[in-house]
Design goal:
Layout lengths: L4 E9 L5 H11 L3 E13 L2 E7 L2 H14 L4 E4 L5 H13 L5 E3 L17 H8 L5 E2 L3 H8 L6 H12 L5 E4 L9 E7 L4 E7 L9 H14 L4 H17 L15 H10 L1
Parallel strand pairs: 1-2, 1-4, 4-5, 5-6, 6-7
Antiparallel strand pairs: 2-3, 7-8, 8-9
Helix pairs in contact: 1-7, 2-3, 3-4, 5-6, 7-8, 8-9
The structure holds adenosine-5'-diphosphate (ADP) and the ligand Cc1ncc(COP(=O)(O)OP(=O)(O)O)c(N)n1.
Length: 271
């Protein structure tokens, strides 16, 4: 049996809801062997981020090389990268190993407001990382920062997606989790010529910690298994919907999503 493998390059969330922990749980649930290169350690729980300890760029590079030189990766996703030096190192390694199925989740700010990316690193994200991405998955505030556009309407999302595609990424997926005035959670995928909307019922809950990490990891898992971007996003949308719907109710703040829910539902459907 040749199992497919995915590498996450991201930060650690001690609370287990976001970051590397969410990514590895998602890979596991979707039948993909998960590997990791840690960019930062955060002391974090459902109440917020209490501290951030970045790794050196050299430490990040060495982890990626250990995976790349021996095991290889069928897909890669990036999450919290924290500073420009780490971003430049990660982009260079992606090029070196000629990894093509690359999902970039441009993580900037955690739900509680803590900064997970230094402001001066945004230009490196645009100039170095987005050109090597197959898919970039900003939420609305991240898309606004990256494009300097205000995003209120579906047309604004389309304009922002076009502008992001000009930076070199092949597919742009603008997530609608922050669009809280609608009853739906609508994500927009742009493939360079056409727009596709992925819509689901918005769940009224505060337990959405790690939705972005989980969603982008699920897309990477689909790509690792050889699926198209459209199919990977479709399945990731079903995965995140189930994970938000079947609440775990852990912690006193924004609790983590349920990474088991999708697999359990599929198991139930098969019976
Ligand atoms: N309350 C919700 N109900 C259903 N889906 C949601 C909800 N919140 C977020 N999502 C979905 O989770 C995914 C991640 O979106 P988002 O929360 O915008 O990302 P981030 O965590 O990066 O801010 C998207 O597919 C979005 O539509
Ligand atoms: C270590 C780490 N990485 C990323 C995030 C942000 O995760 P995200 O999925 O965007 O979820 P919220 O922070 O919005 O809940 C994080 N918090 N920690």
């Amino acid at each position: 049996m040749r199992i497919k493998k995915a590498l996450t390059i991201a930060g650690s969330d001690s609370g287990g809801g976001a970051g590397i922990q969410a990514d590895l749980k998602t890979f596991q649930e979707l039948g993909v062997f998960g590997m990791s290169a840690l960019t930062a350690v955060t002391a974090q729980n459902t109440l917020g981020v209490q501290a951030v300890f970045p790794m050196t760029a050299e430490a990040v590079k060495r982890q990626i090389q250990s995976v790349g030189d021996d095991m290889g990766a069928d897909a890669v996703k990036t999450g919290m990268l924290f500073n420009a030096e780490i971003i430049q190192t990660v982009a260079a390694q992606i090029k070196l190993y000629n990894w093509r199925s690359v999902v970039v989740d441009p993580v900037m700010i955690a739900k509680g407001g803590a900064s997970l990316l230094q402001e001066e690193a945004i230009s490196a994200l645009k100039s170095d990382l987005l050109p090597v991405a197959l898919v970039v998955t900003p939420n609305i505030p991240e898309a606004e920062v990256l494009t300097q556009l205000s995003i209120q309407t579906a047309d604004d999302k389309k304009q922002a997606a076009r502008k992001l595609a000009e930076l070199g990424t092949k597919y742009v997926l603008i997530k609608g989790g922050h669009d809280e005035h609608t009853d739906e959670a609508v994500d927009l995928l742009y493939d360079g010529s056409e727009f596709h909307f992925f819509s689901s019922k918005r769940i009224q809950t505060k337990h959405t910690h790690g939705t972005g990490c989980t969603f982008s990891a699920a897309i990477a898992a689909g790509l690792a298994q050889g699926g198209s971007v459209y199919d990977a996003v479709s399945e990731a949308k079903r995965f995140i919907q189930a994970a938000v719907e079947d609440q775990l109710l852990i912690g006193g703040g924004h609790g983590p999503t349920n990474h088991w829910a999708y697999g359990r539902r599929k198991g139930d459907d098969a019976q």
